[in-house]
Amino acid sequence: MLKKIECFLQPSKLDEIKNELVEMGVGGMSASEVKGFGTQRGYLEGEVPNKEVKFLPKIKVEIVVDEEIVDDIIKKIRELCFSRTIGAGKIFVLPVEDAVRIRTAEVGKRAIY
Known about the structure:
alpha+beta, about 25% helix, Alpha-Beta Plaits, 4-stranded antiparallel β-sheet
């Protein structure tokens, strides 16, 4: 079965994540610049929050892989992005029903590798 991993990360981590995941055999990924907030409501550590919620810049990384390597990918992302500061990021894993490579009509795993 295929899984989609969506990560919301600090922008400074993107290149390192990309390089390490390619080394692990990830065949492709997408990255988007996004803004968001979580439980910290957009405030960085040491800032005094008020009623205003702030959006912070993040990078959203999307990867579709075989479920056999999901745990290894999550472990690597956590290792590379770990910090004890609030706002380090989130990882979500979702099921993918199918994938189709438009050019060749390959489906499933063959479409992503």
